[in-house]
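Input set for joint prediction.
Command: fold jointly, output tokens.
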Amino acid sequence: MDERILQINHLSKSFGSNLVLKDIDFSVNQGDVISIIGASGSGKSTLLRCINLLETPSSGEILYHGKNVLGRGTNAAEYRSHVGMVFQSFNLFNNMTVLENCVVGQVRVLKRGKAEAQAHAMEYLEKVGMAPYVNARPRQISGGQKQRVAIARAMAMDPEVLLFDEPTSALDPEMVGEVLNVMQRLAESGMTMLVVTHEMAFARDVSKRVVYMNGGVICEQGSPDEVFGNPQKAETRDFLSRFRG
Amino acid sequence: MTKFAQLGADIAKLWLKYGHSYISGIENTLILALVGTLIGCLIGFICGILNTIPSGKNDHPLKRFFLGLIRVVIRIYVEVFRGTPMVLQAVFLYYGLPYFTDNAVKFTSVWAAAIVVVSINTGAYMAESVRGGIISVDPGQTEGAKAIGMTHVQTMTSVILPQALRNIMPQIGNNFIINVKDTSVMFIIGFPEFFAAHRAAVGASYLYFPSATVEMAGYLTMTLLASFLLRWAEKKMDGASSYELVQVDPLTMTAGTYSFPDKRSPFDERNPEAEKSALRESLRRQIEREEALRQGQLAEQRRDNGIHDTGFGNPDQRGEH
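tokens >
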């Protein structure tokens, strides 16, 4: 069995009295490509944000290589540098060019030399097809291009897992393809990925495991064939039928 | 019309006699306003950063206590210095210190006193502006920075503050212009700024209105110049409005192929030894090639390709033909 990177035990999160995640158990192994699907408000994004500690879970534990990162005295910044994240709204740094966006984290967090960081950043910008735009600023490029840069920025940190929080939801339909393409190539290269998505085709064709969330719990999970081809639960069938139309 | 001629004559008279004191007044005013605004901005940034350090339930109780304390102290500072006139703050500091300490503690130079008062006053305004500037930066920027593992300080210095600074540039400009004018109250502690020059001139000449005209023109010139420079600085900060597509990027060519050799190893291009051997190697190859040319082995190929051997070309490039 592949090495286990993340193990989530009994994770719960509430905003005030609103319980968004209820007792989630979940694990991520090296090389996994997991799609998390479900209706809006089912807690998918919150789960992802909890994994990256952007939200503090109310209870439960997140084990990163067997070590709980929710305990006191864990270095959240250090942990986050191993767990990359791509946001729905890109969140590129507006005060920097495309290249600087991909370099700054390597230089300041990983303490790489500037030349090395630039060469490394170029490698990934090349892979996402954004190498010609290194001098552009985020406000000067399109949404799909921003998201590809965001992926390069995350990859340049050499993370062990990459979390995608609805990476194509804020994009015009004609830009969705270019981003999904990049993600598919990443998945094929063996990158461990956790993708919250509404793109059912991506979930079915690219991911190795599909997790269906409903009402703050993991309702059903399994291989794409199992979940899409032969859903066990009525809720899953309901949800999927809405997509098939 | 005769009145204007009269005014002109009076101003000329004043300028001849007190011109140097007006000029040095302008200099002192500008220096005081500039230094005061800069230090004030620094104070404002420090307060703004301290005010926006996040504290969560998981933090150590001592840390939360200190953060709370800092916030209270900054709040008091801001409210007191924003809520009282600068002229009185100057009096309090300059005359109050020796009064309370029986002349043991006092400002020996009006420059120091004036700069301290203007800085502290500006800092109180800037603290709030900076806080607003930091809040106005999209929270997504903070999340983006955190997601690649930046600490609070790194997030602030690399991502948030540069954007906050850009956002509050108009405020900084406002404060500078206000300082240019409001430093005129520093005559109260005997600081030789532009308005003090006016008081000295009219005290001796009784040309009250002509001198005030000089002052008006002087202050307006200073502030107009300041706003012009600030606009220019803002434009600079926004960066170029267009960008160049990089079709053949030198970095792209080497990306992933360069393996960062250890310093001073034979593979290190900066190693003088390696450079010398590379030069020897290229010379040797050039000699070999020329030898071959002489023997006529390459003469045919050379004619076909139309290469003109200059004798200085890079042997590697020539070798590709």
